[in-house]
Amino acid sequence: MSNLRTRYVAALLGVYKYAFSPLLHAMPGSAGGCRFQPTCSEYAAIAVAEHGIVAGTWMALRRILRCHPFQRGGFDPVPARDHGHDRSFSPRQLP
After folding, report:
1. What would the pLDDT profile of 1-32 be if each residue is shown by its tens digit?
2. By the 8 A CB rule, do 78 and 43 touch?
3. Based on CB atoms within 10 Å of each CB, which residue in 1, 40, 49, 88 is the most buried?
4. Higher-confidence position of 90 and 36
5. What is the largest CA-CA distance in the chain?
6. Rounded to an integer, what distance in angstroms lies between the CA atom of residue 78 and that of residue 93?
7. Rounded distance, CA 57 to CA 60, Å?
8. Tens of pLDDT along 78-91?
9. What is the pLDDT of residues 38-71, one digit of tens each?
10. What Å distances lie between residue 52 and 3, 10, 65, CA to CA?
């Protein structure tokens, strides 16, 4: 069931990317174009695929909130998923 929901969210993001995103990029001035690479729709699709619907949507919303005229933008990849590794251990802690 979760896989079906993830595909549904991915399909909605695809509709946004191909139907609405070109309209936003056509706007003149600082309102048009994209500040980040990957674009917000690509970021959302990657985040949902990598982290699941809840965490991926939360990450995408935080990314969208960072998209404003005072933000420089640039390369901002989706953070890698922590696959249950113990974060309490660090190689720097070795004697």
Report:
1. 668 887 888 888 888 888 877 776 676 655 56
2. yes
3. 40
4. 36
5. 58
6. 27
7. 5
8. 998 876 655 554 45
9. 988 889 989 988 998 899 999 999 998 888 778 8
10. 9, 11, 20
